[in-house]
Design goal:
The structure holds 2 protein chains of 2 kinds. Helix content of chain A is 14%, strand content 48%. By secondary structure, chain A is mainly beta. Chain B is mainly alpha-helical. In chain B, 26% of the residues are buried. Chain B is built from 1 helix and 1 strand. Classes of the chains: A mainly beta, B mainly alpha. Chains A and B meet through helix 2, strand 18, strand 19, strand 20 and strand 21 of A and helix 1 and strand 1 of B. Strand 20 of chain A pairs antiparallel with strand 1 of chain B.
Chain lengths: 439, 58
């Protein structure tokens, strides 16, 4: 019988434990061999682990911090499992705080998961330098990024392990350039310059991966947060444009009025009410708009009341409308004035096919007499032979319906545009380079 | 198609549909006149004031 011989050496433990020289707490090293500095999660002291021994670099006595993602938590983002091994809390000299979690995967290296005001970004360290195109724009892989922030960031808290020597109070010059969904971040000190590309990721992805708490609505928006309306505005413009084009085609095809019947009605100069009949008015469409136009050519400083009844000869069904032609002029301290019109246009909706009589009840009126401040021009004098020319026409479309339809078609898109502009104004208002006046 | 675009397209179809129906029936909410009582001398719904206007000048 052969003795049992191990086929391969036992695998090294994935996690190496250290004892914090300051507080005695157990500090786990998850990226042993790569980690340079580690922040004790119990007291906040910074330890160096490079030479196999643990050196206390910075002594601290912090209360145990509550972390949104406890160190050691593993989660899958973009199909790769990452482990949170360190976290930094940083700020712009104490204001505008944000948290950065260092993620590690032995095959894929390090990434950053940044939480600013509840929004999460996934940061990849760049090994190439973006190209400066203009004072405003940097370019990376053909995409332009607009400058947004410039300032100084300091480290306020260090917990966990890091691949460089990090310390509380460490300051670097920062600059950020953005495009929708992406932020290009530059950090520089006296010794080096580093660039990171941060991609905004959906909160639900981080919740699913690391079990963080939902943060609710982020307002004002993050610098690289895309407008929720921006993409839809392009698609909406195509949809709305097609709908408006279709409406325009309908207007061209169905628009206009066909005048079929006309007559001239004499106006009694004594101002009595009169009645006249025009017809037959033959309507051939299943339903139509009937337009009645009255023109009073000599009307001056007076008005004509007009009542119309369109009576179906077969059924005696009545379709009625009223109108008036009014025209006034005179002079006052402001000078000469005139108002009103010698024409009257009325329409009757939804009149079915048939043969009709148009009954017109009308009455001419004087507003003033000779010798007053506003002479009537004698429009109802017998020598003028005042009269009304009446035309009857048919059509399908109403201009008001076209206008209402166009407004209703455009309204959702216009609301989207207003919300988009409001979002962009709030987002850009956060920039260090916002025009004066933006909040 | 995004949900928002789908609903906007649906909205456009509804508006155009209502517009077509209004056109087929020659109808508008802003028409001055319409159907009145059968055989009446005017008045009633949709027109026929049988009163007198104006003057409406300044």
């Amino acid at each position: 019988m052969q003795p049992e011989v191990p086929l391969a050496p036992a695998p090294a433990p994935a996690v190496r434990a250290l004892s914090c020289p300051n507080c005695g707490g157990t500090v786990e090293l998850r990226a042993a061999g790569y980690t340079v500095h580690v922040g004790c999660q119990y007291c906040g002291s910074i330890l160096e682990t490079t030479d196999g021994l643990v050196k206390l670099i910075t002594q601290a006595h912090l209360a145990q911090a509550h972390l949104e993602i406890p160190l050691g938590t593993r989660g899958t983002l973009e199909g790769i499992e990452w482990e949170a091994i360190g976290t930094l809390q940083r700020s712009q000299n104490g204001a505008y705080r944000w948290d950065e979690y260092l993620l590690f995967n032995p095959y894929h290296g390090y990434r950053w998961l940044v939480n600013a005001r509840g929004g999460w970004s996934f940061g990849t360290m760049l090994t190439r330098t973006p190209v400066r195109r203009t004072h405003e724009i940097h370019e990376l892989d053909g995409a332009g990024y607009t400058r947004f922030f410039a300032g100084e960031a300091q480290v306020d808290r260090v917990i966990g392990e890091f691949y460089w020597r990090v310390a509380v109070g460490e300051k670097v010059k920062t600059g950020d350039w953005v495009r929708p969904g992406f932020m290009l971040s530059r950090e520089a000190d006296d010794r080096e310059e580093s660039w990171t590309l941060n991609r905004l990721i959906a909160e639900k992805d981080v919740i699913r991966a690391f079990g963080v708490s939902p943060s609710g609505k982020i307002w004002p928006p993050l610098p690289h947060q895309p407008s929720p309306w921006g993409e839809w505005l392009l698609a909406g413009a195509k949809i709305g444009g097609m709908a408006l084009a279709f409406l325009l085609i309908l207007c061209v095809v169905l628009g206009g009025t066909r005048w079929t019947t006309s007559g001239v009605l004499p106006v009694a100069v004594d101002g009595r009410e009169q009645t006249a009949r025009l017809g037959p008015v033959t309507l051939t469409g299943r339903y139509q708009r009937v337009q009645i136009r009255a023109d009073v050519p000599r009307l001056e400083n007076g008005w004509v009341d007009l009542d119309y009844r369109l009576v179906d000869r077969k059924t005696q069904q009545v379709y009625a409308a009223s109108g008036a032609a009014e025209r006034y002029e005179g002079a006052d301290s402001d000078g000469a004035w005139s108002e009103g019109s010698r024409n009257s246009d009325v329409s009757i909706a939804s009149v079915p096919a048939g043969e009709y009589d148009l009954i017109v009840d009308y009455k001419g009126n004087r507003w003033s007499q000779f010798g007053t401040g506003n002479p009537d021009g004698g429009w109802m004098e017998p020598t003028n032979q005042p009269q009304i020319a009446v035309q009857v026409g048919t059509g399908t479309l109403y201009l008001s319906s076209v206008v209402i339809a166009a407004i209703l078609l455009a309204l959702p898109w216009l609301i989207g545009l207003i919300l988009h502009l409001n979002f962009e104004k709030a987002r850009k208002g956060e920039s260090d380079f916002a025009p004066a006046g933006d909040d | 198609m995004a949900t928002r675009s789908f609903f906007y397209a649906l909205w456009c179809l509804v508006v155009l549909g209502l517009f077509m129906i209004a056109a087929i029936f020659g109808w508008s909410p802003f028409a001055e006149g319409g159907r009145a009582g059968r055989g009446s001398g005017g008045g009633g719904t949709g027109g026929g004031h049988y009163g007198y206007y104006g003057p409406h000048h300044k």
